[in-house]
Amino acid sequence: MSRAHFRFYEELNEFLPREKRKTEFVYQFNGTPSVKDAVEAIGVPHVEVDLILVNGISVSFSRKLSDGDRVSVYPVFESFDVSAVTHLRAKPLREPGFILDVHLGRLAKYLRLCGFDTLYSRFFEDHEIIETALRENRIILTRDRQLIKNSRVTHGYWIRSQDHKEQLTEVFRRFDLRERLALFSRCINCNAPLEEVRKEEIIDRLQADTSTYFSKFKRCPVCDRLYWEGSHFDNMKKIISQLL
Question: Which pLDDT does position 78 carry in this prediction?
Answer without folding.
Answer: 45
